[in-house]
Design brief:
The chain has 16 helices and 17 strands. It has helices at 29-43, 66-76, 97-105, 120-125, 132-145, 163-173, 193-196, 204-220, 239-245, 272-276, 289-300, 309-316, 320-323, 325-333, 348-352, 354-362, and strands at residues 5-10, 12-13, 25-26, 53-58, 85-90, 110-116, 150-156, 180-185, 224-227, 230-232, 251-253, 258-261, 264-268, 282-286, 307-308, 337-340, 343-346. It has a 9-stranded mixed sheet, with helices on both faces. Strands 12-13-14 form a 3-stranded antiparallel sheet, with no helix packed on it. A 3-stranded antiparallel sheet has the order 15-17-16.
Length: 363
């Protein structure tokens, strides 16, 4: 399988959010300058420039200053000449009109803005340092410059958040000219501040109700759900993230990044010191055929379209309906799975209990 996607990790942040467990460090100009130099060295090891998608994530890529952002665009230019989708993550408080111009000039054609909520009081609860007005201004600037593919991240299950807060956030969406929404449930990961503070997340019933509400409201606004947590207007699904969900190959460069090369998962070290010293050490995890098949099922069932049974058979020379017959039969009987047009897919209700379904596939 060829590789046509590249993920680039920028680990620097101006502040650390209470819910975040991604690989990140506080922004330092000298470290960032050296990091970009090392990033260029690591990228030079990639021979294939025939990329279709590039995604720059973090951390907070927009924490880089103007000169560093220009340098990053220059480093990636040889790789971005033929891409269909070139996306950069950003926070509203660290992105401005001039930085947007730098991205536009560099060939970026998709923006992913970390909003989480438009309720300023809730933003303080998770140590976010922007406000709703900054988000609206950023989207307006982006439109003026010519960006027509904008995604925002929202969250539910935040501390002190109510159902009314969710409805207010969706009301704001009505007034924004955006094409994609990623709406995540807050998950308490080990090592996050909220985990240490013993914050209690939503119970299953409340999460179901809020998820159902979000699905309905976004559908009314013209956003089709195409993945467990992602909604897009027609034609604006994330091409890069679909690579992950289709369990295809991708390069990963930068501190803490991850890549996939057929049966190998390649994980980068999270040691900034080693990376800045030019040690691009990776750990290669060899996957068995059984592990690959399960991961394919796990990722594909996240999609509303489901698992392409024909593609599965071509990749593994195995019939998923035979291998996972017991799990499929059980969940079909319970109304959680269906088979349509040679796709195995979760029903609307099944998507809400996907983890329970996957447990059956592990037996």
């Amino acid at each position: 399988m060829e590789t046509h996607s590249l993920y680039v990790h920028i680990p620097f942040c101006d502040s650390i959010c209470r819910y975040c467990d991604f690989c990140k460090v506080y922004y330092d100009q000298k470290q960032s300058d050296l990091y970009l130099q090392r990033l260029q060295e690591e990228l030079s090891q990639i021979e294939n420039h025939n990329l279709k998608t590039i995604y720059i994530g973090g951390g907070t890529p927009s924490a880089l200053n103007d000169e560093q952002l220009e340098k990053l665009m220059g480093i990636l230019k040889p790789y971005s000449l033929k891409v269909q989708e070139y996306c950069v993550e950003m926070n509203p408080e660290s992105m401005d009109y001039y930085k947007l111009k730098i991205l536009k000039k560099g060939g970026v054609n998709r923006l992913s803005i970390g909003v989480q909520t438009f309720q300023n009081n809730l933003l303080k609860e998770i140590d976010r340092h922007h406000n709703a007005t900054q988000v609206k201004n950023l989207i307006r600037y982006a439109k003026q410059i010519g960006f027509d593919n904008i995604s925002i991240d929202l969250m539910y299950g935040l501390p002190k958040q109510t159902k009314e807060d969710i409805e207010k956030d969706i009301d704001v969406l009505k007034m924004l000219d955006i094409q994609h929404v990623s709406y995540y449930s807050l998950i308490l990961e080990e090592g996050t501040i909220l985990k240490y503070q013993n914050y209690q997340p939503l119970d299953d019933e409340q999460e179901y109700q809020w998820n159902f509400l979000i699905d309905e409201k976004l559908q009314e606004l013209g956003f089709d759900k195409y993945e467990v947590s992602n909604y897009a207007k027609k034609g604006y699904e994330s091409k890069h993230n679909l690579v992950y969900w289709h369990f295809e190959n991708y390069y990963g460069v930068g501190l803490g990044s991850c890549g996939k090369n057929n049966h190998q998962i390649i994980e980068h070290s999270r040691s900034l010191t080693k990376y800045l010293n030019g040690d691009f050490k990776t750990t290669t995890i060899e996957q068995s055929k059984e592990e690959m098949m399960f991961d394919q099922v796990m990722m594909s069932l996240r999609l509303v379209e489901g698992l392409n049974l024909e593609v599965f058979k071509e990749r593994y020379q195995e019939d998923a309906l035979e291998i996972y017959q017991d799990a499929i039969d059980k969940n079909k009987k319970e109304g959680r799975l269906v088979i349509e047009d040679n796709f195995l897919k979760a029903t609307k209700e099944g998507l809400y209990v996907l983890n329970d379904i996957l447990v059956d596939f592990m037996k």
